[in-house]
Design a protein that fits this description.
- By secondary structure, the protein is of the alpha/beta class.
- It has 13 helices and 10 strands.
- Strands 1, 2, 3, 4, 5, 6, 7, 8, 9 and 10 form a 10-stranded mixed beta sheet that branches.
- The longest helix is centred in the first third of the chain and has 29 residues.
Length: 329
Protein backbone atom coordinates (compact mmCIF):
# COMPACT_ATOMS: atom_id res chain seq x y z
CA UNK A 1 0.00 0.00 0.00
CA UNK A 2 2.82 2.38 0.80
CA UNK A 3 5.03 1.43 -2.16
CA UNK A 4 3.04 3.39 -4.72
CA UNK A 5 3.29 6.76 -2.93
CA UNK A 6 7.02 6.20 -2.36
CA UNK A 7 7.50 5.27 -6.04
CA UNK A 8 5.50 8.28 -7.12
CA UNK A 9 7.60 10.51 -4.92
CA UNK A 10 10.80 9.05 -6.33
CA UNK A 11 9.53 9.52 -9.87
CA UNK A 12 8.59 13.13 -9.11
CA UNK A 13 12.01 13.71 -7.63
CA UNK A 14 13.67 12.34 -10.76
CA UNK A 15 11.59 14.67 -12.90
CA UNK A 16 12.60 17.60 -10.73
CA UNK A 17 16.28 16.73 -11.09
CA UNK A 18 15.95 16.36 -14.87
CA UNK A 19 14.15 19.68 -15.10
CA UNK A 20 16.83 21.39 -13.04
CA UNK A 21 19.47 20.11 -15.47
CA UNK A 22 17.61 21.65 -18.38
CA UNK A 23 16.78 24.88 -16.57
CA UNK A 24 20.13 26.70 -17.04
CA UNK A 25 19.94 26.38 -20.83
CA UNK A 26 16.34 27.50 -20.93
CA UNK A 27 17.04 30.40 -18.60
CA UNK A 28 20.10 31.32 -20.63
CA UNK A 29 18.00 31.72 -23.75
CA UNK A 30 15.03 33.31 -22.03
CA UNK A 31 16.94 35.87 -19.98
CA UNK A 32 19.63 36.59 -22.57
CA UNK A 33 20.86 39.26 -22.77
CA UNK A 34 20.71 40.83 -19.32
CA UNK A 35 23.98 42.75 -19.61
CA UNK A 36 26.01 44.46 -22.38
CA UNK A 37 27.31 42.40 -25.29
CA UNK A 38 30.77 42.98 -26.79
CA UNK A 39 31.58 42.43 -30.45
CA UNK A 40 35.33 42.16 -30.93
CA UNK A 41 36.60 43.33 -34.33
CA UNK A 42 40.17 41.98 -34.64
CA UNK A 43 41.21 44.57 -37.23
CA UNK A 44 41.53 48.34 -37.27
CA UNK A 45 38.48 50.57 -37.60
CA UNK A 46 37.47 51.73 -41.05
CA UNK A 47 37.19 48.47 -42.98
CA UNK A 48 34.20 46.42 -44.02
CA UNK A 49 34.31 44.10 -41.01
CA UNK A 50 34.16 47.13 -38.74
CA UNK A 51 31.35 48.75 -40.74
CA UNK A 52 29.16 45.64 -40.70
CA UNK A 53 29.86 44.99 -37.02
CA UNK A 54 28.75 48.51 -36.09
CA UNK A 55 25.56 48.25 -38.13
CA UNK A 56 24.79 44.92 -36.45
CA UNK A 57 25.59 46.33 -33.00
CA UNK A 58 23.29 49.30 -33.51
CA UNK A 59 20.42 47.11 -34.62
CA UNK A 60 20.92 44.56 -31.86
CA UNK A 61 20.99 47.30 -29.22
CA UNK A 62 17.59 48.46 -30.43
CA UNK A 63 16.01 45.04 -30.84
CA UNK A 64 17.43 43.34 -27.73
CA UNK A 65 17.18 46.51 -25.62
CA UNK A 66 20.68 46.01 -24.31
CA UNK A 67 23.97 47.78 -25.01
CA UNK A 68 26.06 46.16 -27.74
CA UNK A 69 29.60 47.54 -27.85
CA UNK A 70 32.09 47.20 -30.72
CA UNK A 71 35.75 46.96 -29.69
CA UNK A 72 38.55 47.11 -32.27
CA UNK A 73 41.53 44.98 -31.26
CA UNK A 74 43.86 44.82 -34.28
CA UNK A 75 47.19 43.08 -34.48
CA UNK A 76 48.94 40.02 -35.95
CA UNK A 77 46.59 39.72 -38.95
CA UNK A 78 43.58 39.62 -36.65
CA UNK A 79 44.98 36.88 -34.42
CA UNK A 80 45.09 38.89 -31.18
CA UNK A 81 41.42 39.77 -31.03
CA UNK A 82 40.41 36.35 -32.30
CA UNK A 83 42.35 34.58 -29.55
CA UNK A 84 40.71 36.76 -26.96
CA UNK A 85 37.25 35.68 -28.04
CA UNK A 86 38.33 32.02 -28.20
CA UNK A 87 39.26 32.27 -24.51
CA UNK A 88 36.18 34.26 -23.47
CA UNK A 89 33.33 32.83 -21.42
CA UNK A 90 30.94 30.87 -23.66
CA UNK A 91 27.86 32.80 -22.63
CA UNK A 92 27.02 34.85 -25.71
CA UNK A 93 28.24 38.15 -24.26
CA UNK A 94 31.52 38.19 -26.22
CA UNK A 95 31.26 37.79 -29.99
CA UNK A 96 33.73 37.96 -32.86
CA UNK A 97 33.21 39.79 -36.16
CA UNK A 98 35.45 38.43 -38.91
CA UNK A 99 36.14 38.02 -42.61
CA UNK A 100 37.75 35.03 -44.38
CA UNK A 101 40.97 35.82 -42.54
CA UNK A 102 39.51 34.01 -39.57
CA UNK A 103 39.54 30.76 -41.53
CA UNK A 104 42.65 31.25 -43.63
CA UNK A 105 45.10 32.53 -41.00
CA UNK A 106 45.52 29.21 -39.13
CA UNK A 107 46.33 27.53 -42.44
CA UNK A 108 49.22 29.94 -43.08
CA UNK A 109 50.39 30.75 -39.55
CA UNK A 110 51.47 27.66 -37.58
CA UNK A 111 51.11 29.37 -34.18
CA UNK A 112 47.79 31.11 -34.92
CA UNK A 113 46.58 30.04 -31.48
CA UNK A 114 43.07 28.90 -32.39
CA UNK A 115 41.11 26.43 -34.46
CA UNK A 116 38.29 28.05 -36.49
CA UNK A 117 36.09 24.97 -36.10
CA UNK A 118 36.92 23.59 -32.64
CA UNK A 119 37.24 26.88 -30.75
CA UNK A 120 34.16 28.74 -31.99
CA UNK A 121 30.41 28.38 -32.29
CA UNK A 122 29.22 29.65 -35.70
CA UNK A 123 26.40 32.18 -35.40
CA UNK A 124 25.86 33.53 -38.91
CA UNK A 125 27.42 34.83 -42.06
CA UNK A 126 26.53 38.48 -42.50
CA UNK A 127 27.49 39.34 -46.07
CA UNK A 128 29.63 38.59 -49.10
CA UNK A 129 31.95 41.11 -50.75
CA UNK A 130 33.81 40.92 -54.08
CA UNK A 131 37.40 42.09 -54.12
CA UNK A 132 39.20 44.16 -56.69
CA UNK A 133 42.80 44.34 -57.83
CA UNK A 134 43.75 48.02 -57.61
CA UNK A 135 46.99 49.78 -58.51
CA UNK A 136 48.48 53.18 -57.75
CA UNK A 137 48.31 55.48 -60.82
CA UNK A 138 52.12 55.47 -61.01
CA UNK A 139 51.99 51.81 -62.07
CA UNK A 140 51.98 51.99 -65.89
CA UNK A 141 50.36 48.59 -66.37
CA UNK A 142 46.60 49.18 -66.67
CA UNK A 143 45.47 45.61 -67.37
CA UNK A 144 45.80 42.28 -65.58
CA UNK A 145 47.60 40.81 -68.58
CA UNK A 146 50.19 43.60 -68.62
CA UNK A 147 50.73 43.33 -64.87
CA UNK A 148 51.37 39.60 -65.14
CA UNK A 149 53.86 40.14 -67.96
CA UNK A 150 55.78 42.65 -65.84
CA UNK A 151 55.74 40.37 -62.81
CA UNK A 152 57.10 37.49 -64.87
CA UNK A 153 59.84 39.67 -66.34
CA UNK A 154 60.80 41.17 -62.96
CA UNK A 155 60.21 38.66 -60.13
CA UNK A 156 59.70 40.30 -56.71
CA UNK A 157 59.53 43.83 -58.11
CA UNK A 158 55.80 44.40 -57.77
CA UNK A 159 54.82 45.11 -54.17
CA UNK A 160 51.36 44.30 -52.85
CA UNK A 161 49.84 45.58 -49.62
CA UNK A 162 47.75 43.51 -47.22
CA UNK A 163 46.84 43.36 -43.55
CA UNK A 164 49.16 40.42 -43.03
CA UNK A 165 49.80 36.77 -43.81
CA UNK A 166 46.52 34.91 -44.09
CA UNK A 167 44.40 38.04 -44.54
CA UNK A 168 41.83 38.19 -47.34
CA UNK A 169 44.00 40.48 -49.47
CA UNK A 170 47.05 38.31 -48.88
CA UNK A 171 45.20 35.14 -49.86
CA UNK A 172 43.85 36.76 -53.02
CA UNK A 173 47.37 37.86 -53.97
CA UNK A 174 48.77 34.38 -53.27
CA UNK A 175 46.11 32.74 -55.40
CA UNK A 176 46.87 35.26 -58.15
CA UNK A 177 50.62 34.64 -57.92
CA UNK A 178 50.21 30.88 -57.94
CA UNK A 179 47.86 30.80 -60.92
CA UNK A 180 49.85 33.37 -62.90
CA UNK A 181 53.20 31.79 -62.06
CA UNK A 182 54.70 35.01 -60.69
CA UNK A 183 56.42 36.20 -57.53
CA UNK A 184 55.48 39.49 -55.87
CA UNK A 185 56.71 41.33 -52.78
CA UNK A 186 54.36 41.19 -49.78
CA UNK A 187 54.13 44.31 -47.57
CA UNK A 188 52.11 43.71 -44.40
CA UNK A 189 50.21 46.21 -42.26
CA UNK A 190 48.35 46.04 -38.94
CA UNK A 191 45.06 46.80 -40.63
CA UNK A 192 43.45 47.03 -44.04
CA UNK A 193 42.80 50.77 -43.79
CA UNK A 194 46.50 51.44 -43.16
CA UNK A 195 47.44 49.30 -46.16
CA UNK A 196 44.97 51.16 -48.35
CA UNK A 197 46.26 54.52 -47.15
CA UNK A 198 49.80 53.62 -48.20
CA UNK A 199 48.58 52.33 -51.55
CA UNK A 200 46.81 55.62 -52.26
CA UNK A 201 49.98 57.41 -51.13
CA UNK A 202 52.13 55.42 -53.53
CA UNK A 203 54.23 53.58 -50.93
CA UNK A 204 53.14 50.25 -52.43
CA UNK A 205 52.10 49.37 -55.97
CA UNK A 206 49.03 47.15 -55.88
CA UNK A 207 46.51 45.65 -53.50
CA UNK A 208 43.66 43.14 -53.53
CA UNK A 209 40.96 44.94 -51.59
CA UNK A 210 37.23 44.75 -51.09
CA UNK A 211 35.24 46.87 -53.53
CA UNK A 212 33.42 48.38 -50.56
CA UNK A 213 36.56 50.21 -49.44
CA UNK A 214 38.53 50.70 -52.68
CA UNK A 215 35.59 51.60 -54.90
CA UNK A 216 35.48 55.21 -53.73
CA UNK A 217 39.17 55.70 -54.60
CA UNK A 218 38.67 54.12 -58.02
CA UNK A 219 35.77 56.44 -58.80
CA UNK A 220 37.81 59.43 -57.61
CA UNK A 221 40.69 58.50 -59.92
CA UNK A 222 43.11 57.89 -57.04
CA UNK A 223 43.46 54.19 -57.86
CA UNK A 224 43.17 52.16 -61.05
CA UNK A 225 41.00 49.04 -60.99
CA UNK A 226 42.44 46.20 -63.07
CA UNK A 227 39.91 43.48 -62.30
CA UNK A 228 37.46 42.10 -59.75
CA UNK A 229 38.14 38.73 -58.14
CA UNK A 230 34.68 37.23 -58.50
CA UNK A 231 33.26 35.17 -61.37
CA UNK A 232 30.93 38.02 -62.32
CA UNK A 233 31.41 41.78 -62.37
CA UNK A 234 30.64 43.92 -59.35
CA UNK A 235 27.51 46.09 -59.39
CA UNK A 236 29.61 48.80 -57.75
CA UNK A 237 32.22 48.74 -60.54
CA UNK A 238 30.30 47.43 -63.56
CA UNK A 239 32.88 48.64 -66.08
CA UNK A 240 35.73 46.75 -64.43
CA UNK A 241 36.28 43.26 -65.91
CA UNK A 242 36.78 40.15 -63.83
CA UNK A 243 40.38 39.05 -63.42
CA UNK A 244 39.46 35.85 -65.23
CA UNK A 245 38.27 37.70 -68.33
CA UNK A 246 41.08 40.28 -68.12
CA UNK A 247 44.02 37.93 -68.39
CA UNK A 248 43.97 35.10 -65.83
CA UNK A 249 41.30 32.52 -66.82
CA UNK A 250 39.89 30.49 -63.94
CA UNK A 251 40.79 32.99 -61.23
CA UNK A 252 38.05 33.51 -58.63
CA UNK A 253 38.01 34.66 -55.00
CA UNK A 254 35.64 36.58 -52.77
CA UNK A 255 35.20 37.27 -49.08
CA UNK A 256 32.53 36.77 -46.50
CA UNK A 257 31.97 38.47 -43.16
CA UNK A 258 30.52 36.65 -40.17
CA UNK A 259 29.74 36.63 -36.46
CA UNK A 260 30.90 33.85 -34.12
CA UNK A 261 30.82 33.05 -30.41
CA UNK A 262 33.20 31.00 -28.24
CA UNK A 263 32.80 27.22 -28.46
CA UNK A 264 30.44 25.93 -25.80
CA UNK A 265 28.01 28.82 -26.02
CA UNK A 266 24.52 27.37 -25.34
CA UNK A 267 22.78 26.48 -28.62
CA UNK A 268 19.66 28.37 -27.53
CA UNK A 269 21.72 31.54 -27.08
CA UNK A 270 23.45 31.03 -30.43
CA UNK A 271 20.06 30.57 -32.10
CA UNK A 272 18.71 33.73 -30.48
CA UNK A 273 21.74 35.71 -31.64
CA UNK A 274 21.45 34.29 -35.15
CA UNK A 275 17.80 35.26 -35.47
CA UNK A 276 18.39 38.75 -34.05
CA UNK A 277 21.39 39.46 -36.30
CA UNK A 278 19.59 38.13 -39.38
CA UNK A 279 16.65 40.42 -38.60
CA UNK A 280 18.96 43.44 -38.36
CA UNK A 281 20.62 42.58 -41.68
CA UNK A 282 17.26 42.26 -43.41
CA UNK A 283 16.20 45.76 -42.40
CA UNK A 284 15.86 47.93 -45.53
CA UNK A 285 17.97 50.66 -43.97
CA UNK A 286 20.80 48.22 -43.20
CA UNK A 287 20.78 46.73 -46.68
CA UNK A 288 20.69 50.21 -48.22
CA UNK A 289 23.94 51.20 -46.50
CA UNK A 290 25.74 48.02 -47.52
CA UNK A 291 24.47 47.68 -51.09
CA UNK A 292 25.74 51.18 -51.91
CA UNK A 293 29.23 49.88 -51.16
CA UNK A 294 28.93 46.72 -53.20
CA UNK A 295 28.26 44.50 -50.19
CA UNK A 296 25.70 41.74 -50.60
CA UNK A 297 23.69 41.11 -47.42
CA UNK A 298 23.61 37.34 -46.95
CA UNK A 299 22.80 36.00 -43.47
CA UNK A 300 22.93 32.23 -43.06
CA UNK A 301 19.67 30.30 -42.84
CA UNK A 302 20.90 28.81 -39.55
CA UNK A 303 24.05 28.47 -37.42
CA UNK A 304 24.38 24.93 -38.75
CA UNK A 305 24.38 26.12 -42.35
CA UNK A 306 27.11 28.63 -41.57
CA UNK A 307 29.10 25.91 -39.82
CA UNK A 308 29.09 23.93 -43.07
CA UNK A 309 30.34 27.04 -44.93
CA UNK A 310 33.24 27.33 -42.48
CA UNK A 311 34.24 23.71 -42.95
CA UNK A 312 34.28 24.09 -46.73
CA UNK A 313 36.39 27.24 -46.40
CA UNK A 314 38.93 25.40 -44.24
CA UNK A 315 39.25 22.72 -46.91
CA UNK A 316 39.72 25.40 -49.58
CA UNK A 317 42.57 27.14 -47.79
CA UNK A 318 44.28 23.89 -46.87
CA UNK A 319 44.56 23.21 -50.59
CA UNK A 320 46.69 26.32 -51.10
CA UNK A 321 50.47 25.84 -51.19
CA UNK A 322 51.30 26.88 -47.62
CA UNK A 323 55.04 26.64 -47.96
CA UNK A 324 54.99 29.07 -50.89
CA UNK A 325 52.78 31.51 -48.99
CA UNK A 326 54.99 31.48 -45.91
CA UNK A 327 58.15 31.96 -47.94
CA UNK A 328 56.71 35.23 -49.29
CA UNK A 329 55.61 36.65 -45.93
Amino acid sequence: MNKFPRGLAAFSGALAIAASCLLPSAQAAGDFPDKPIRIIVPVAAGGTVDLVARLVAKGLSEDLRQSVIVENKPGASGLLGTREVARAAPDGYTLLAVANTFVSAPQFVPDAGYDPIADFAPVTQTCQIPMVLVAHPSVPQRTVKALIERARAHPGEISFASSGVGSTGYIAAELFSKQAGVKMLSVSYKGNSQALTDLVGGQVMIMFDQVSTSGVYVKAGKLNALGVTTATRSKLLPDVPTIAEAGLPGYEDDTFNAILAPAGTPPAVVAKLHDAIAAVLRRPETAAVLVKQGIEVKPSASPEEFGAVLKRAVEKYRAIDQETALSRS
